[in-house]
Write a structure and sequence with these properties.
Aldehyde Oxidoreductase, domain 4; seven-stranded mixed sheet; five-stranded mixed sheet; 20 helices; 27 strands; 24% strand; disordered N terminus
């Protein structure tokens, strides 16, 4: 574990920084945990969804009469069963994405849905629905979509943030710009300038559990929804908007979640299940097949980039120019804004320009994927930085260290950095034995760094003390990366009781106050802070109760190791368990709720190094070693932190080497399954070594920054830089598949 100077992460802590067994571990390893598809209700129907076979088509007519008359079919819904899209443009896009109206905008777009007694009956009914389409021309990437001759997907889309504003519609939804200084002056001062173009393909989050939803709509016009999501409060809001309901009519109960990585912050099935249940008068469950997950849920963007960076011979970067166009899918909203914010953020720059375009294409609307957009922009920037470092004759770590931001520097996207740990991650990599391990023939080493700003947002927590002295911590943040454990550890630290005496609970939308989604590396920071504050309210209450019994002022009582004791030692200490047992005589139940709008979010940095070997005869890449160092702020549960670091690397390696959406000329996806869309398996990966750097975030009670996002930012570039070193060829198009690498070896003039 690498630490910032004068920092001891365990100093004064008993539980924070320890590694207890996960609270949900028993249920998950024994199969008792209930995921989205596990719920069975009396009289429940099975739902199925009819999806467009075309990438772009006008829906001329839909006839559901034959399907409705089939045996076992209890309800059928189409766009006519939902309100006309209303509200803000982004809300209308969600409504149109859940159910197509006038046009199908991508292969897999929902046309209708059916609920029947059995899965077979539901699927047969889909085949009986008659849909007449008028097939339209389609665009499948940003180059096609931005061409002057391109078919325009939305005839009312006028590019935002362009001055003067365009008069004609296009497929460019918006433009993002960050700039500073004088680019021409900066490049004129450079001794070395490198410019490259890059492309990436859409990739999926690859969560193991497909989307699932169960809805039980009752005659009083209310519905209870069970779903696997990263935020059931958000699911309630989105679903009620699609239905045209008040949110109070929906109760959303969180199921366990079998992976999300950003891809389950979006609704797909919930409004369909509610409406089918309402029409049938019975509960309805819908579960996506893997084919549907790929064709109809959001991957992250494919993108095109141009990166130009100049530097002096002493390694000082003088200018950087980054241009990016991101696929948004069929509706606006790619992560190009976040990509623009993060692209150059790790480095001190006086002269720079970052320009990004959000471009619609005839593919599924993109969804978040860990640090959305940042891995793509980092791929281009860190690849060019690697070449610049080589040309000026500097070690890649030293080059980054020379230009690294630190406390007080202004980020390229605006704010000044508070306490950060970027340089500490660089030093941790340089000090590790992996960095100097000997390389053999056809082997290469690649370095890359990455940044993510992390999120705060809103959280609520309730802490209840039980009469046996144990505690229940109630939050509304679905547990994806170990938040139950981190909540319990921080509560145990505050209350001074054993962590096994803390029961963390993820509650439904009617049981706990509002919580934003589990995403953006926000939960341990924001929900954790709410838990800490609720515990501190309880401790103050317990001290006051003890003081009253001793007939002294509350400020004369201290809380030590789960006990109240007079500061002067005049009375024996009283434990939490004793106070809880007598709560009826000292003021009633002991409970506290704290709602928190998090501020002081801690920025996160990661530096990684990849060693790999390229087979010159086949182009196959074997990853030999991988090392990642990341500033966690404070590792509340180090095992979970290590898992987050390793998971980000594993996904990044897959993104770099194998993963991509492949569409044919008709806009139909050709690899919608894990046999043809190849995510890394154990045999593809080495042991992933981790170094947890801890530079505490002073704005959090325990120094938390958040760890789930930034770990996936550097791998694309780290792998690409290692391939360039091993193959002596710079390949700028992802994925770095054997065919692409072999072609570069045999045919490249670079």
């Amino acid at each position: 574990m690498a630490l910032a100077e004068d920092t001891n992460p365990m100093q004064g802590f008993k539980w924070v920084g320890s590694r207890p067994i996960r609270p949900d571990g028993f249920d998950k390893v024994t199969g008792r945990a209930k995921f989205g598809a596990d719920l069975v209700l009396p009289g429940m129907l099975t739902g199925a969804v009819l999806r467009s076979p075309h990438a772009h088509a006008e829906i001329v007519s839909i006839d559901t009469s034959d399907a409705e008359a089939m045996p076992g079919v209890k309800s059928v819904v189409t766009g006519a069963d939902f309100p006309e899209p209303y509200g803000k443009p982004a809300e209308q896009d969600v409504q149109r994405n859940v159910m197509a109206r006038e046009k199908a905008l991508y292969e897999g777009h929902v046309i209708a849905a059916v609920a029947a007694l059995t899965r077979e009956q539901a699927r047969a009914a889909l085949g009986a629905i008659k849909v007449t389409y008028k097939v339209l021309p389609h665009v499948m990437n940003v180059t096609e979509a931005m061409a002057d001759s391109a078919v325009v997907i939305h005839d009312n889309m006028i590019t935002k943030n362009v001055d003067p504003a365009p008069e004609a519609p296009s497929n460019v939804a918006s433009r993002t710009v960050f700039d500073g200084g004088e680019l021409d002056k900066g490049f004129a001062e450079a001794d070395v300038v490198v410019e490259r173009e890059f492309t990436t393909k859409p990739v999926h989050q690859g969560y193991i559990e497909p989307h699932a939803a169960v809805a039980d709509t009752t005659p009083d016009g209310r519905s209870t929804v069970w779903c696997s999501s990263q935020g059931h409060f958000a699911m309630r809001t989105y679903t009620s908007n699609v239905l045209g309901w008040d949110a109070s009519r929906l109760k959303v109960i969180p199921a366990e979640i079998g992976g999300g990585f950003g891809g389950k912050t979006v609704i797909y099935l919930e409004p369909l299940a509610v409406r089918l249940s309402q029409k049938a008068g019975r509960p309805v469950r819908i579960v996506m097949d893997r084919d549907e997950v790929f064709r109809a849920s959001g991957p992250t963007s494919g993108a095109s980039l141009r990166v130009k960076i100049g530097a002096k011979n002493d390694g000082t970067i003088t200018a950087a120019d980054v241009w990016m166009a991101f696929e948004a899918g069929a509706f606006a909203g790619s992560p190009v804004g976040a990509a623009s914010m993060t692209a150059l953020a790790p480095y001190k720059l006086e002269n720079f320009k970052i320009e990004g375009f959000d471009v619609v294409v005839n593919k599924p609307k993109v969804a978040a994927y860990r640090a959305p957009g940042a891995p793509i922009s980092s791929f281009g920037v860190e690849s060019v930085l690697d070449e610049v470092a080589t040309k000026v004759g500097m070690d890649p770590i030293d080059f980054r260290m020379h230009n690294a931001v630190e406390q007080g520097d202004t980020a390229t996207y605006g704010p000044k950095f508070p306490v950060i740990g970027f340089k500490e991650t660089l030093q941790a990599i340089k000090d590790h034995p992996n960095y100097t391990a000997e390389l053999g023939p056809n082997q290469g080493r690649g370095v890359a760094s990455g940044f993510w700003f992390n999120a705060g947002m809103n959280s609520t927590a309730t802490v209840n003390i039980n009469d046996d002295g144990t505690a229940t911590v109630v939050t509304g943040s679905p547990d994806i990366g170990g938040s139950r454990a981190s909540m319990a550890l921080m509560a145990a630290e505050e209350l001074g009781i054993d962590v096994v005496s803390i029961k963390p609970v993820v509650a439904d939308t009617e049981t706990v106050g509002f919580n934003d989604v589990t995403g953006g590396s926000r939960v341990t920071l924001a929900t954790g802070a709410a838990v800490v504050e609720a515990c501190r309210i309880i401790v103050a209450d317990l001290k006051a109760r003890a003081a009253k019994g001793w007939d002294i002022e509350a400020d004369q009582v201290e809380w030590v190791d789960g006990r109240a004791q007079p500061i002067d030692g005049s009375q024996p200490a009283v434990s939490l368990a004793e106070l809880a047992k007598n709560w009826g005589r000292t003021g009633g139940p002991i409970s506290a709720t704290y709602s928190h709008n998090a501020r002081g979010v801690g920025a996160a940095f990661s530096t990684q190094v990849c060693d790999l070997e390229v087979d010159p005869d086949t182009g196959r890449v074997t990853v030999l070693r991988y090392l990642t160092a990341q500033d966690a702020g404070r590792a509340i549960h180090p095992s979970y932190v290590e898992g987050q670091l390793q998971g980000g690397v594993a996904q990044g390696i897959g993104w770099a080497l194998n993963e991509e959406y492949i569409h044919n000329d008709d806009g139909v996806m050709e690899n919608p399954g894990f046999l043809d869309y190849r995510i890394p398996v154990a045999s593809d990966l080495p042991m992933i070594d981790t170094v947890i750097v801890e530079v505490p975030n002073p704005a959090h009670p325990y120094g938390v920054r958040g760890v789930g996002e930034v770990g996936i930012v550097p791998p694309l570039a780290a792998v690409a830089n290692a391939v360039a070193a091993a193959a002596d060829r710079r390949i700028t198009d992802l994925p770095l598949s054997p065919v692409r690498i072999l072609d570069a070896i045999l045919n490249s003039e670079d």
